[in-house]
Amino acid sequence: MIKVPLLDLKAQFAQIRAEVMPAIDQVCSSQHFILGANVTALEQELAQYCASPAAIGVSSGTDALLLALMALDIGAGDEVITSPFTFFATAGTIARTGARAVFCDIDPVTFNLSPGAVQAFIDDRCAVQGGRLINRATGGRIKALMPVHLYGQCADMDPLMKIARHHDLKVIEDAAQAIGAEYRGGGRAGTFGDVGCFSFFPSKNLGAFGDAGLCTTNHAELAESMRVLRVHGGKPKYFHAVIGGNFRIDELQAAVLRVKLKYLDGWTEGRQRNASFYDAAFAQANLGAKLTTPQVLPGYRHIFNQYVVRVQKRDALRVRLAERGIGTEIYYPMPLHLQTCFAYLGHQAGDFPQSERAAAETLALPIYPELDEEQLAHVVASVAEFYA
Fold first, then answer.
1. d(CA 314, CA 328)
2. What architecture is the 10-261 domain classified under in CATH?
3. Is the pLDDT of residue 185 over 90?
4. Quick one: fold of 264-387?
């Protein structure tokens, strides 16, 4: 039987082993493991790649979000508008600062935060008091907007940025799945708002050998603030004007990522090529409403961190595919507003119908660049057979 794992990084490692092992050995020989030359060089290289003036390497994508919130002085009494259909860290970091997550529903085509839903929330439930946007139900100040570039396609940033500017909201882009993704007109993920936040979790298009992340910003003062906050707020060392955290990226991870960055665009092209194969093959299979492939919006660069289809009988299909040796994943089976830890926000089933529908109907198929056509065809044939 043909095996098609959801992700297999061994083929990628074989491709880069001859470069990455000497890079690791060089760091080990230097015994300089914290904020060394590889971190400095990686930050410069990623700033150029992301088309951002500044990049700050951090310990994880989660810590990138937390650091951004801290640098923008978001905390108790503040509220941050975001999506309920995303990885937990998006809203979890908001809660960790003492701020309150405010959920607005998603666009059913892109799965990204809906600008219309954000505007409707502001119109229906907020008021301007003393020049500040206030949530009438809680009395909290709406201070920031945190859109997520889900699965590797940018959120609709023009209307979101227009809303943010009109109400003087800070914007933190959760670009954990979207390094190199482009919005219509060519702007890259992480460069529209105040801070862009990236993850280098091993499964990402650009993955470390463990946890690592990045913040980008167009503001020099904000970049300096984040550099200070990532080392416990100490500047100079042992002198603390502010309270920060330990959010440093590892020198070893920086060395690995510098090798991998050279291959990133080629790997992304492989994912895009596989996505095109799926699109054409599923169209030829004539599955109708039983399966909907991802839609790449005109002018966007979708990097396909995931290839997520909307399907009927999702859970039964997943079982069948597992029987055929095909790995899948559900991103995400329960939207955040229904998670037990967010019960204090007072939401119930039905509050965000598009997010709930997506949680029930979406399935990620294998998309990594090393897949061959035989494996891709096996996935399509197995799906078609299930619905036949």
1. 11
2. 3-Layer(aba) Sandwich (3.40)
3. no
4. Aspartate Aminotransferase, domain 1 (3.90.1150)
